[in-house]
Design goal:
The protein has six helices and nine strands. The protein starts with a strand and ends in an 8-residue tail after the last strand. The protein has 219 residues and is of the alpha/beta class.
């Protein structure tokens, strides 16, 4: 595990994450989980797309009732940034260890996240609708695209917006086609860049989803 201070949009976050998630698979306990549960610990690292999404959230004024949901929060950086920006966030992840990291990091950053909960995209729990649903780096497996869209359809309010940020992975190239084929959302793709401290700017693309027929202008 490594501790890292990152500066995004003028805010400093002190977070713990795995430096090399793949190395966790050398542990026989996690190696067995990888086989038995298709468990991969990569959500316990900090990925570039999460920095870009955190930057976007910190630069945007919350709207509506300010309720937001993160799908796949990992170590919690984006939910922590969204909470600091003024959103009332429910941070979710499939892995309890990721949720432990996220809770711990929220405490390290002195930020109160609304709630944390376990979620499997294929058997999603019941929540009332959210004004914003967001996720980063979740489109790396095409078989996950349909369950993710199912969660967005289930949880996004009628006038809400969904932001999914991806680090330009080829596996996400056809995601807009899947959105249009689903028939419930429009999909707008755009490129974004975030400066994290003094490092080289990080780039990613955002897929912005809105329910078909929604004419209300949202950020």
């Amino acid at each position: 595990m490594a501790f890292r201070k990152v500066e995004i949009a003028g805010h400093v976050f002190d977070v713990a994450a795995l430096k090399d998630a793949a190395g966790l698979l050398d542990d026989p306990v996690y190696a067995k989980r990888f086989v038995d549960e298709d468990f991969a610990p990569y959500g316990l690292e900090l990925w570039p797309a999460s920095f870009v999404l955190a930057d976007l959230l910190l630069r945007t004024e919350p709207w509506g009732e300010r309720r937001a949901l993160e799908l796949g929060c990992g170590v919690g950086l984006v939910s922590i940034a969204a909470s600091r920006a003024g959103w009332n966030v429910l941070a979710t992840d499939h892995y309890d260890l990721a949720l432990e990291f996220a809770r711990y990091n929220a405490g390290r950053c002195g930020v109160e996240v609304g709630a944390f909960d376990h979620m499997d995209w294929r058997t999603p729990p019941d929540y009332r609708p959210f004004d914003l649903v967001f996720a980063s780096d979740v489109l790396y497996q095409r078989e996950d695209h349909a369950p993710i869209l199912g969660c967005v359809e289930r949880y996004l309010s009628q006038t809400g917006t969904c932001w999914i940020v991806d680090p330009n992975r080829p596996s996400a190239d056809r995601f807009p086609d899947a959105v249009i084929a689903d028939g419930h959302f429009s999909c707008e793709a755009s490129s974004h860049e975030a400066q994290v401290g003094e490092s080289k700017p990080m780039t990613a693309r955002m897929f912005k989803l809105r329910r078909v027929g929604d004419r209300k202008s949202q950020t």
